[in-house]
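Quality-control log, excerpt.
Job 1 of 2 completed; input and output follow.
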Amino acid sequence: MKQFLETGKITGTHGLKGEVRVQPWADSPEFLTEFDELYLDNGARKIVITSSRVHKGMLIMKIKGVDSIEDADRLRNRILYMNRDDVELEDGAYFIQDLIGLDVIDDDTGERLGTLADVSETGANDVYHVRTSDGREVLIPVIPDVVREISLEDGCVRIFRMKGLFE
């Protein structure tokens, strides 16, 4: 598992005093306001966040040492990373990046059905995008009746194959 996870992208500047606009890659932009430190360069460079707030679905962030619009503009299009040790997930919650690439297994037969390729957040429940060996994409609702077990250790998601899902 990766120690540093992509969490957003700096898309531009905000104001004249060095604030940046961040497109959040999290369940909610508010999640990122909790961080005092984030990282650049795949986690190699720590940055200190002195303030952050949500504005129109984006994050407005002030980074220590970035004090002018020119400094902020140099960070445009940079990816922000978080250290997974800085977050305590609730039981049954996972980082999407940890789920991508897991084998999807029929829990009843043990048959490998494909690879988890993406996760969509639909509001009611998430949806797993499963890429089958023949290249098709099958959408699986993430509900207790379908997803029986997620095992990062075993590298798989065990599901109940509902009638019609893979036909």
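Job 2 of 2 completed; input and output follow.
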Amino acid sequence: MADNKLSREGHRARIRETYLSGGMDNAPDHNLLELFLSVIIPRRDVKNLSYELINTFGSLEGVINASPRELMNVSGIGESTAVALTCIKKINDRIVKNHNADVKRIITLEDAKRFCINELKTQTVEKVIQVNLKNNGSIICTYLISEGSVNSTNVDVGKILKNALMDNAAYVFIAHNHPSGEAFASGSDIDFTFNLRNTLKNVSITLIDHFIVAGDSCECIIHNPMFEK
């Protein structure tokens, strides 16, 4: 028993030394996960657990995107470990979204695309956001319009119109994400976009565009130059 414990502790020490020397950059996913588990579960051999987690959820990304309840269904994963694993994604999501914290104005289509990517790239379900702008491109407010499954979501045109009128917006753009797909507009996306554009145009508000985000990719439907009425 003592020899096993010494062997285990020696293995942990070697993994940490490798990490601290910068040698984990190209390590297999299960090794990196094992290192993390060894920090939060200090008195157990977690090598097999790292393999089991990746096999259960299909990939390292699958492990990190799993819910606490799903993780705790795996033998050896308790509440504290599940919280630590899921917190990785929450922290990363916050870092990405914080890139928009200092963005006060949207001037170009590239500005708008980058803003949408930062808002939506880390989301695991489909969401629709609305961004209202003043005449000079200053951001008035960003709204979550709807949130659905990974495949679909319901969008309320009336809600978008209400938000735009409430903010006295001059310009609006909307965006939604495809969590497991490509940044490609469907026929229904296109129909919805031009219907929304006409609705807003009736009250002298310009729909700049409808952006579709998939990871770091972002495409638009109208391809309208910013602030062109």
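Post-run check on job 2. The two ends are 77 Å apart (CA to CA).
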